[in-house]
Each structure stands twice: as C-alpha cells, then as structure tokens.
Amino acid sequence: MNRFAYTRAGSVAEAVQALAGDPAARIIAGGTNLVDLMKYNVERPDRLIDITRLPLAAIEEHEGGLRIGALVPNSTVAYDARVTARYPLLASAILAGASPQLRNAASTGGNLLQRTRCYYFYDEGTPCNKRVPGSGCPAIAGVNRIHAILGTSDHCIATHPSDMCVALAALDATVRVEGPNGPRAIPFAEFHRLPGDEPQRDTTLAHGEIVLSVDLPDRDFSRHYTYLKLRDRLSYAFALVSVAAALEMDGETIRTARLALGGVAHKPWRNAQAERSLEGRTAGPETFRAAADLILAEAKPYAHNGFKIELARRAIVRGLAQAAAGTPQSQTDKRIR
Amino acid sequence: MLSESGTRDAGDRIAITLTINGQRRQLQVAPWTSLLDLLREDLDLTGTKKGCDHGQCGACTVIVDGRRVNACLALAVMKDGASVTTIEGLSTGALHPVQAAFVEHDAFQCGYCTPGQIMSAVALIEEGRARTREEIREYMSGNLCRCGAYTNIVDAVESVLNGSSARREAAE
Ligand SMILES: Cc1cc2nc3c(=O)[nH]c(=O)nc-3n(C[C@H](O)[C@H](O)[C@H](O)COP(=O)(O)OP(=O)(O)OC[C@H]3O[C@@H](n4cnc5c(N)ncnc54)[C@H](O)[C@@H]3O)c2cc1C
Ligand code: SF4
Ligand code: FES
Ligand code: FES
C-alpha cells in the first residue's frame, strides 16, 4: 500500500473542501473496497478523508419513503424493520451479497461507489482502460467469463458488481449528493453510467462530490418482489446474473412492473420497453419470456460469457414468476423454486 | 487523539485509543496500518489470523463495537475510540461455550481458520438470526475453511444455539 496522509472530516463541508482541493484524495467509509484496491496498488490516494464520524448514519422517514444515510452499514439497512416491511427487495438484495462481516463494515455510499471486479482492472501488470485510461482493454479478447453482455463499448466490458444497487435501480431511488457547487439529487438510473469511451468514470458523480443519502420513494412493492442471484457458489460470490423484480398486481394482471438486472452491464440494467410490455398482461411464462426477449435482443456475447444470455433469460422468467406469485427467493434456503 | 476532526501528513504516526479485550490502550499508528497488522505485529495478539488479507476468507474476523468485521480491511486509525474483541479476549479461564463446542464437535483440522470461525459464531449467536442449519451455514459463509471442516463447524454452532452439552459443560 502506498503512503498517504489522513484527514478525519468533522463536517460534510470540510470533507467536500478537502476532497475538491485534491484530485488524488479519496473518501473512505467502510474501507472494504478501497483498502482492498489500495493493497493491489489499483488505488493510490495521496490522502484519505475519513467520513465515518459525519452525521450520515441514520435511516429516516422522508416524503412518505425512507432516507438512508450514506454511512448506514449494509447490514443495518437489511435488518431495519421499516426496510424489511416496506422495501424487502432492498433487504433481500443486500443479504444476497458479500458476507455478514463485510455487510457490517460496508456503507450505503461505499456500496454505490464500489468498483468492478474485472480481473484485469485488479492486476496492475496488465493494461486496463478503467485503471489507466487509453492503455487498452485486454478483457475484450481475453478471459471475459464474468463480463458484460449489455451496454458494452470497445473500451470496456466490465460489470458493476453491486447487488444492493440492482434493487435500488428497480425501486427508483434517488442519490442525494453534496459538492463544491452545493447539493443535488441524482435519479438512480443516472447515477451509474455506461463505459462509452470513458470507462474510468463509473458514475456521474464529479470529483469533490460526496453521497449524503439514498432516498427511497413512497412506493410499495412489498408483496410482489424477488431478488434472484445466480453465481458460481451459493454464498460469498458476486453475481453472474441477478434479477430484481418488483410488481404491482391486480389479481393475475400485472399493473406495474419494475425489472433490473445485475452482473450483465456496467450499471444495473433496466429496459423501459420490456417493463411496459408486462403491464396490463396476465402473469405467465409467455408474458415473461417476451419481456426477456426484449431485454436480451441487444445482448452481445464475448468468447466466454455467451452463457449469460440464456442464464439471464431464465433468471428473468423465474424472477418474474417468483414476484408475481408473491414467493420471493430466500437468501438462506438456496433452492430456487 | 484527533478530536472531532483533524489532518495528518503522510509519514505521521497518529495517536489513537482502543479498548482491546477490555483493556484501554494508547497507541501510535501509521494511517496505512490495518487493524489486523496492528493486532498481530504491534500487539502480539496473533490469535487473529491473516488468510487472504483481502476480505475473502474471514480468518481475521474480530468483533468491533459489537459487530463482527474483517480486521484486514479495517484501518486501525479509523477505529480510534472503538472496543475490539479478539479470540484472546473471549474467555478468562474456562473455554467460552463456542470454543468448548468446537473441541467437542471436532470442528477443525489444521486450526488456521478456527479463531475467525469462533469469533464469527459468537457474533452469529449474539445477532440471534440463525435458527436452522441452513441459516447457520449462510451466516457462517463469510468464513472459509480450507480443510473443509464445515459440517462439524455447523454442528458446533448448532449445539451452542440449542444450549446443548457444550454450554452445560462450560458452565460446570
Ligand atoms: C470478498 C468480497 C466479496 C464481496 N461480495 C459482494 C457481493 O456479493 N455483492 C456486493 O454487492 N458487494 C460485494 N462486495 C463489495 C462490498 O459490498 C463493497 O466493498 C462495499 O459495499 C463498499 O462499501 P464501503 O463503505 O466499504 O466502501 P469504501 O471501501 O469505504 O469506499 C468505496 C468507494 O466509495 C467511495 N465512497 C465511500 N463513501 C462515499 C460517499 N459517501 N460519497 C462519495 N464516495 C464515497 C470511496 O471513495 C471509494 O472509492 C464484496 C467485497 C469483498 C471484499
Ligand atoms: S473490461 Fe474494463 S475494467 Fe476490465 S480490463 Fe477492460 S477496461 Fe479494464
Ligand atoms: S484475512 Fe481478512 S478476510 Fe482473509
Ligand atoms: S481447519 Fe484448516 S482451514 Fe479450517
């Protein structure tokens, strides 16, 4: 790990100022991603700004929904009674990720800003456009089993690894941030970005901006939801494909549909056309398959990840079936029903 | 100690206070020292193990302010003021019921993952969310065992959860 200076921020303003004034400074919260990347020399901050003492660790009622402070640990969110009652999709997605120890340390803000698990990104001995802009993307012609099938570019085919963010995308959360130019609110769909020709930028956050909270809107998907995560081992592994589904049902008819995919793109993947195609239809395999076809029509396989297209198709169909039936995937009983 | 806020240049050691296994300690740490390295290298508390050093194995599990975390991914300086329990602090004298259960159920082979497994199990029981074997397995999944003692580890944890022989023996 490189040597760095340490600042313990006493206020949001102080943290913003310290960060904005130093392009090589980084915010640290739980540290579970940043410290890991620093040990691999992928991140080499000259200063860490410790924000863990800032008053951003509360979950509060907000405009009929909930405001989750950036420092609330992932495990606290997952077990909060208001979250499990009103946003069980979010709780389930969090519990599908990492381990109990990591979820205790990981913060809400840090989870949003965790970086890809692309093996080339982690290996400073190889080129990588995300790590060293302009150096190339060895994944495209290399080993790309875990990589993206949707929204890729000629510059990067990495995926965003978060489970929590897939649920937040489906729930239409808002990210509230504060920067040198004041506060702003970013709709979740606009927070993460596709790689395009700037894969070094994971999000639309500017350097100097700090996440203050994630706000959940007043919308109840607590009856018809699921988070279905498929991976190489049943626990403590990142998603190959995951599906967050949230429905409102009128008997057998789908009134509202929200569907987000993880493990397939540089950001949680939503497709408005596919969601509209579900609405007003009777829940059933045909309807679900048609939506999956719409989403995957533009999927592009690479040498080793073609299996993800069929895996995603089946996960979408199964996830929608689980949500429609009101039988969400358990995160402890690993059998998929 | 840095009071509310403060800043230090690279190279400076920083004064922090930690309560480790009930004992208050004033320490000087470099900002890049992990809690794991502080425990093992500076304080000679080598019960906490370094398996992967990247959050992937759970061998370094300790309890900080009542929550189990991976000591390898925590910077010591950030834990200023915290209370840390390691395997060395689990019991004074008689074995902790979880330790006794690990012995009784033969829940280890080489023993390298064992301190982390035990700390994790102690926290799991405290959290009170696991009842079934399936739940024990899931909530112990942050601790890998290269020797594959998993079945016996689940047996040991289950026996303590059920308040069976291990707890009674330790209490005697
Ligand atoms: C072995 C392992 C397995 C894992 N498995 C999973 C998994 O299956 N699913 C999953 O979703 N995740 C998984 N994770 C990732 C984990 O969820 C993230 O590491 C964690 O959420 C990051 O949060 P943190 O608070 O520790 O972030 P930090 O490491 O503190 O920070 C991460 C990034 O966010 C920035 N940051 C932090 N807070 C803010 C803020 N408030 N404003 C602006 N920037 C900020 C930091 O500057 C840094 O760039 C795994 C991690 C490990 C090590
Ligand atoms: S996929 Fe993206 S992160 Fe991976 S090597 Fe290519 S540019 Fe780097
Ligand atoms: S040494 Fe910390 S998780 Fe492996
Ligand atoms: S007993 Fe050897 S690693 Fe678990």
From TrEMBL, chain A:
It holds the Pfam family CO_deh_flav_C. Keywords: FAD, Flavoprotein. It comes from the Bacteria. Transmembrane segments: none annotated. InterPro entries: CO_DH_flav_C (IPR005107), CO_DH_flav_C_dom_sf (IPR036683), Diverse_Substr_Oxidored (IPR051312), FAD-bd_PCMH (IPR016166), FAD-bd_PCMH-like_sf (IPR036318), FAD-bd_PCMH_sub1 (IPR016167), FAD-bd_PCMH_sub2 (IPR016169), Mopterin_DH_FAD-bd (IPR002346). Gene3D superfamilies: 3.30.465.10, CO dehydrogenase flavoprotein, C-terminal domain (3.30.390.50), Uridine Diphospho-n-acetylenolpyruvylglucosamine Reductase, domain 2 (3.30.43.10). Residues 1-221 form the FAD-binding PCMH-type domain. PANTHER family: OXIDOREDUCTASE, XANTHINE DEHYDROGENASE SUBUNIT C-RELATED. This is Aldehyde oxidoreductase FAD-binding subunit PaoB. It comes from Methylobacterium isbiliense.
From TrEMBL, chain B:
PROSITE patterns: 2FE2S_FER_1, 2FE2S_FER_2. It comes from the Bacteria. Keywords: Iron, Metal-binding, Oxidoreductase. Pfam families: Fer2, Fer2_2. SUPFAM superfamilies: 2Fe-2S ferredoxin-like, CO dehydrogenase ISP C-domain like. The keyword Iron applies. The keyword Oxidoreductase applies. Gene3D superfamilies: 3.10.20.30, [2Fe-2S]-binding domain (1.10.150.120). Residues 14-90 form the 2Fe-2S ferredoxin-type domain. This is Aldehyde oxidoreductase iron-sulfur-binding subunit PaoA. It comes from Methylobacterium isbiliense.
